[in-house]
Design a protein that fits this description.
With 68 residues, this protein is mainly α. It has one domain. Helices cover 47% and strands 0% of the residues. It is built from 3 helices and no strands. The longest helix has 23 residues. The N and C termini lie far apart (54 Å).
């Protein structure tokens, strides 16, 4: 078992780990910005309605995938 003092101690990260965390945070921020801008994109032209076949399977439209 660990003590409470051990749990509250900060971990010392290497410079490479610190860079990786900074890059991951930048990617998350960029992803959030893209989500906000997704409503500005034009609607899909000529796509099929309904659920995404790659996610839900092509059985929904008699096994025919025409979206790709």
């Amino acid at each position: 078992m660990t003590n409470e003092a051990d749990r509250t101690q900060e971990r010392v990260l290497s410079p490479a780990a610190q860079r990786a965390l900074a890059e991951a945070e930048a990617r998350r921020a960029r992803g959030e910005a893209e989500k906000l801008n997704s409503s500005e994109r034009p609607p899909e032209q000529g796509g099929r309605g309904g659920a995404e076949p790659a996610r839900y399977g092509d059985w929904e439209k008699n096994g025919i995938i025409s979206d790709f």
